[in-house]
Sequence to fold (343 residues):
Amino acid sequence: MKEQLKAIGEQADRALEKVQSLSELDQLRVSFLGKKGPLTALLKQMGSLPPEERPTMGQLANQMRQHIEEHIEARLAVLKALEIKKTFEAESVDVTLPGVKLPKGNLHPLNQVLDDMIDIFQSMGFDVVDGPEIETEYYNFEALNIPADHPARDMQDTFYVGDHLVLRSQTSAAQIRTMETRKPPIRVICPGRVFRADEVDATHSPVFHQIEGLVVDKGITMCDLKGCLEQVAREIYGPDAKIKFRPSFFPFTEPSVEVDVSCPECGGHGDSCRICKGTGWIEILGAGMVHPRVLAGCGIDPEEYTGFAFGIGLDRLTTTRYKISDIRLLFENDLRFLTQFDR
Ligand code: PHE
Fold:
């Protein structure tokens, strides 16, 4: 029996040397020390020994079990260390390698110009307000002095999306919403998307952007409008920029003007300039003195208060600033185009 014990020990030692993984080691532990293992089998035969030999044999068997257990533990430590080393090697990072550059995004040119405009107006004391893109006919037209049967509705080819609901064709709707909720003095701009059923071409898009401006206070005159817009034009196009008022018509302003700025490309000379098409001027916005009927409709007494409003075309501002010849480029989201405006 002693011989058998010794053989089991040697067998275990040999097997242990070959073990390469923790799971193999587990299997080995079970097969040598488990209930069905050779050691247990041997102990079961103890009964057949003469009684005086049993304690010695029992002791030897226990020593052997201990011997195997210790060796298993030792192998376990070696395997664990190996495993850790392997993980470290697999996960190792060479900190001296050059980094992988992540592409950095940039703001869309429209948003860059919008951010600049917001800065300019905020520095002049304007608040920025927001309005819904789906508007009621009331805010988009009626409250702006454009009744349902008025031919002025044809000025804007409007998308109707439901009963008395439109995609706003102008940010002017925000004037009404503002005057309904704020008391004068009022000084706000409302930038946003507007929609008109226009055919797409180099200068038209069914979706474009406006920045609405509204100032209402005691004693506001057309001079304030001109001074304000002149200041804005200089901030955008430089100190030499000039503006020009042309008489125009909007149902919600009286008098109304269209405002041109001297062409930033040719400095106003025109000649064969492709940006202003030889005229020396670029139209950038519509404006005027808020119609007394519009003020009164919002509960503001036109005898006490006057105001001016303007609607700037953000897309035109952007195309002239960056000398972009086709408005469609602003909406096609071609990264080759957009990444040129990284600043
Ligand atoms: N809402 C007008 C348009 O879209 C522009 C405008 C705004 C005119 C404010 C006057 C005052 O054409």
Observations:
- The radius of gyration is 42 Å.
- The domain at 109-341 is CATH 3.30.930.10 (BirA Bifunctional Protein; domain 2).
- The pocket of phenylalanine is lined by residues 170, 172, 250, 253, 286-288, 309-311 (CB under 6 Å).
- The chain is about 40% helix and 20% strand.
